[in-house]
From TrEMBL:
GO terms for cellular component: chromosome, centromeric region; nucleus. Keywords: Coiled coil. The keyword Coiled coil applies. It comes from Pitta sordida. One of its GO terms (biological process) is CENP-A containing chromatin assembly. This is CENPP protein.
Length: 190
């Protein structure tokens, strides 16, 4: 009977240790995300914020001006969504590695383009030299409802192989728009 009680306590201790380990990893990940900016970026952000605060204290930015800016940005976003057909539903970013010269971030993105849904997962490798920053997409994975269309499957495979996101978004926009036109046309004749 005593061994049974000890086992219950040991199981509870082990469960708590695992929970502590998971929470510690989550905390370290959050710390890494919050420290993913360089000192120069933080200083520039602070200076920019101070300039904005000085402008507000002088009366340049009133709440009505900010509301007008927000409405303008929402109108621009709505216009871009209508123009391209893209509507992003979720995005997550996780910094995998950060050094002075390079940063590796893992992105997950999902959304719709007209009536076709898609999910992307990729790593973005940013290399920083003194003059410029270069970015490379690696480990691209695209999940898309291809509706058993072999051409779309071939296209997605080719994009994943080359890691070319711009080509993916441009082609998906055009394909989805015409897919929607074909769908409406076939519905008209039914």
């Amino acid at each position: 009977m005593d061994d049974n009680i000890y086992q219950v306590y040991e199981d509870e201790i082990q469960a708590l240790e695992e929970e502590i380990k998971l929470l510690t990893e989550k905390y370290e990940e959050m710390q890494q995300e919050s420290t993913s900016f360089s000192d120069e970026e933080i200083l520039e952000s602070i200076k920019s914020f101070q300039r904005e605060m000085q402008g507000e204290s002088k009366g340049h930015e009133s709440p009505s001006d900010l509301k007008a800016q927000l409405e303008s940005l929402e109108a621009d976003l709505s216009f871009l969504m209508k123009l391209t057909g893209f509507q992003f539903t979720s995005h997550s970013k996780k910094t995998m590695e950060r050094t002075k010269e390079k940063t590796v971030q893992k992105h997950r993105l999902s959304g719709n383009c007209y009536s076709l849904s898609f999910q992307l997962e990729f790593q973005l490798l940013q290399m920083q030299s003194k003059e410029k920053v270069s970015s490379v997409v690696t480990d691209l994975s695209i999940i898309m409802d291809s509706r058993e269309d072999s051409d779309v499957s071939k296209f997605v495979s080719s994009i994943e192989e080359h890691g070319n996101l711009i080509t993916f978004f441009r082609s998906l926009s055009t394909y989805s728009e015409w897919f929607e036109h074909r769908r409406r046309t076939f519905l008209h004749f039914k």
